[in-house]
RNA sequence: GCCCCCAUCGUUCAGCGGCCUAGGACGCCUGCCUUUCACGCAGGUAACACGGGUUCAAAUCCCGUUGGGGGUACCA
C-alpha cells in the first residue's frame, strides 16, 4: 500500500517554523516511503481564513524545497462535510442543540464541558442551533502513536462536541475526519497540540463507517526560551522572515530536522538525500524542543561556506547592497570569498562590505579608543600618509607599506590603519579590498583619522 | 478544576538493562594558526529532576513526587 500523508495548514497566518516542521516531517516520510504528499488547506472557518495567505504558504513551502503531489481546499468540499453531519443526525449519532454558551456555563459551571442537555430534546433547525456529536458514555478511545506509544481517553471525559456551527458550517473535525478517510490518508503527522482532538476525529471517522484509522505520529512542540509553544504573536517565527534575513532554505530545513530527531551517527549537517534515507518517524523524541537561533545560525554559516563562490555570489547578491543601491558585480565577485567566510546570514553582508562600497563608516567609538589610543598611532598614520601618494596601488605594495611602517616603529600598524580606513577593528582582510578603493579616498580617510586623534 | 503529554550537559540529539568513569553538535572558555576578524585545528566546561520498587545489573522497566508543557471554543 502506498503511503499517503498530508500537511493541513489553516490559512490564518503565515507559515511559521512549527508548521514548516510538520510539513517537513510529512514530506520526508512521503519521499522516503515513495508515498504521496498531499497539501490540504483547512479553510472551513471563513471568518479567520484569508485566501491570500494560501499563496504565502505555497511560497514558504517552495522556498524550503518542499513539493506536494496533490492539493485540496476544504472550502471546495463543504457539501461532503454537511452531508456527513446531517447523516449523523438522521442516524441518531448526532443531535441539534440550542443551548447558548451562557446557558451551558450556568448549568455546569466554569470548569465542565457540555452536559448533554439537548440529547433527547429533539431540537428543530433554527437560528442559534448547532449540531453536536453524541459521544459514548463509557469505554475508551485511543490509538498507538508512533512517537508517544499508546494514548487513551476515557469516553466519559469527552463531551458532546459541536460538529456544525449555527451558521451551518461544519467544524474542522468533521472535515478532517472526512478528508482523511476520503483521501486515503495512511499516516497523520502533526503537532502535539492536536492530540486532544484525535479522539473526536477517531469517533467521527468510525461513525462514517471507517474500519481502521491512519497511523498517528504527534510531533513534540517547538518552544521558545520560556518553554512555551511558539506563537505567531510573541515569537518571531514566520518562515518568510527567515528567508528575508538571509537564511538558506537548506540550512533551515536541516536545522528543523534536528529538533526532535537526529541521525544515529551524530552527523547533523548533511545532504537532504541522506536525511531522507535515515529518517524514521518512530525515532522522534517526544519531548518539546527549543528553537535555538544560535544553532540555526551555525548551520546557516556552514551551509553558506559549503557553497561554491559562484553560487554564493549568485544567491547572496540581492543582499549585497550599499545605501547607493546594488554593488558593482565585478567588485562583489572579488570580495565574495572573504564575505562568504564571515557571514552567518546574508543580512550581515552590507555591514561587512560597507567600507569598500559606500565610503568610510562612522568609527565605532569604543573600538576607536581602544585601537587609536596607543602611543605609536600618530606616527604610524603620519608615515603612511607620507608615502600613500607614491606607493604602487596593489594589495602587496599596500601591505608592504603599512606593515613596513609597523616594523620601523616596532609597533602593530595594521590595526590603526584598519581603523582609519574601515572604521572597524575587525572585518574583511584589509589590503586586498583597500586596493579596490581610490587613492584619493584612502588618503582622505587616513587624514581624517589623523585629525581625529 | 478536568483531560492528555513530557522529563539526559545552558541548548539539542544519541543512549531502548550490562559496551556509560554517559557520546556528538551548538554555546561558552583555553590554546594554535593569523600583524584584524572570521575560517580551520587542538583541548576544556557541563547532564541522567527526586523518591521508591523490579533485576545479579537501571539513564534505560514500573509506581509515586516534583517540575514543565499542551488541550479544555460555534479556531485549526
Description of the structure:
- With 453 residues, the chain is an alpha/beta fold.
- Among the domains are: 79-164, Glutamyl-tRNA Synthetase, Domain 3 (Glutamyl-tRNA Synthetase, domain 3, Alpha-Beta Complex), CATH 3.90.800.10; 312-358, no CATH class; 362-453, Arc Repressor Mutant, subunit A (Orthogonal Bundle).
- The chain is 45% helix and 12% strand.
- It has helices spanning 17-33, 52-63, 78-90, 101-108, 172-182, 198-207, 239-244, 249-257, 272-278, 293-306, 309-316, 329-342, 349-357, 365-372, 377-388, 395-409, 414-422, 431-436, 439-452, and strands at residues 4-7, 36-41, 70-73, 94-97, 130-133, 140-145, 149-154, 162-164, 187-191, 215-219, 222-223, 289-290, 321-322, 325-326.
- It has a 3-stranded parallel β-sheet with strand order 1-2-3. The chain has a 3-stranded antiparallel β-sheet with strand order 4-5-8. Strands 6-7 form a two-stranded antiparallel ribbon.
- Strand 1 (4-7), helix 1 (17-33) and strand 2 form a beta-alpha-beta unit.
- Helix 8 (249-257) crosses helix 10, helix 11 (309-316) crosses helix 12 and helix 15 runs antiparallel to helix 16.
- The mean pLDDT is 95.
- It binds one RNA strand of 76 nucleotides through strand 7, helix 5, strand 12, helix 10 and helix 12.
Amino acid at each position: 500500500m502506498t503511503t499517503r500523508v498530508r500537511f493541513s495548514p489553516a490559512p490564518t497566518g503565515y507559515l511559521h517554523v512549527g508548521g514548516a516542521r510538520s510539513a517537513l516531517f510529512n514530506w520526508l516520510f512521503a519521499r522516503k516511503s515513495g508515498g504521496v504528499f498531499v497539501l490540504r488547506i483547512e479553510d472551513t472557518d471563513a471568518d479567520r481564513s484569508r485566501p491570500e495567505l494560501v499563496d504565502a504558504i505555497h511560497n514558504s513551502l517552495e522556498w524550503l524545497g518542499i513539493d506536494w503531489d496533490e492539493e485540496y481546499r476544504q472550502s471546495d468540499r463543504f457539501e461532503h462535510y454537511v452531508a456527513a453531519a446531517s447523516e449523523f443526525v438522521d442516524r441518531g449519532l448526532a443531535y441539534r442543540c440550542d443551548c447558548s454558551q451562557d446557558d451551558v456555563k450556568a448549568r455546569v459551571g466554569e470548569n465542565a464541558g457540555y452536559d448533554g442537555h439537548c440529547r433527547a430534546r429533539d431540537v428543530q433547525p433554527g437560528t442559534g442551533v448547532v449540531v453536536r456529536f453524541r459521544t459514548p458514555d463509557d469505554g475508551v478511545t485511543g490509538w498507538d502513536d508512533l512517537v508517544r506509544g499508546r494514548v487513551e481517553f476515557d469516553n466519559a471525559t469527552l463531551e458532546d462536541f459541536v460538529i456544525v456551527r449555527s451558521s451551518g458550517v461544519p467544524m474542522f473535525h468533521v472535515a478532517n475526519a472526512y478528508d482523511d478517510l476520503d483521501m486515503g490518508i495512511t499516516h497523520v503527522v502533526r503537532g502535539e497540540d492536536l492530540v486532544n482532538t484525535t479522539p473526536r476525529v477517531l469517533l467521527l471517522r468510525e461513525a462514517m463507517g471507517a474500519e481502521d484509522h491512519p497511523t498517528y505520529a504527534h510531533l513534540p512542540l517547538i518552544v521558545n526560551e520560556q518553554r512555551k509553544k511558539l506563537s505567531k504573536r510573541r515569537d518571531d517565527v514566520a518562515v518568510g522572515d527567515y528567508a528575508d534575513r538571509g537564511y538558506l532554505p537548506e540550512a533551515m530545513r536541516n536545522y528543523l530536522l534536528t529538533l526532535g530527531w537526529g541521525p544515529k551517527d551524530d552527523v547533523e549537517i548533511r545532504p537532504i538525500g541522506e536525511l531522507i534515507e535515515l529518517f524514521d518517524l518512530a525515532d522522534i523524541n517526544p519531548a518539546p524542543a527549543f528553537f535555538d537561533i544560535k544553532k540555526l545560525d551555525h548551520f546557516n554559516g556552514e551551509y553558506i561556506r559549503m557553497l561554491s563562490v559562484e553560487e554564493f555570489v549568485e544567491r547572496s547578491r540581492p543582499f549585497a547592497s550599499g545605501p547607493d543601491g546594488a554593488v558593482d558585480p565585478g567588485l562583489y565577485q572579488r570580495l565574495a570569498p572573504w564575505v562568504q567566510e564571515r557571514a552567518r546570514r546574508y543580512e550581515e553582508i552590507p555591514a561587512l562590505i560597507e567600507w569598500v562600497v559606500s565610503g568610510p563608516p562612522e568609527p565605532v567609538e569604543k573600538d576607536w579608543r581602544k585601537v587609536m589610543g596607543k602611543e605609536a598611532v600618530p606616527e604610524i598614520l603620519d608615515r603612511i600618509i607620507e608615502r600613500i601618494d607614491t606607493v604602487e596601488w596593489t594589495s602587496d605594495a599596500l601591505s608592504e607599506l603599512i606593515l613596513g611602517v609597523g616594523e620601523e616603529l616596532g609597533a602593530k600598524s595594521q590595526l590603526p590603519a584598519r581603523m582609519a580606513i574601515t572604521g572597524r577593528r575587525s572585518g574583511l582582510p584589509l589590503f586586498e579590498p583597500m586596493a579596490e578603493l581610490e587613492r584619493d579616498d584612502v588618503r582622505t580617510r587616513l587624514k581624517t583619522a589623523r585629525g581625529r586623534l
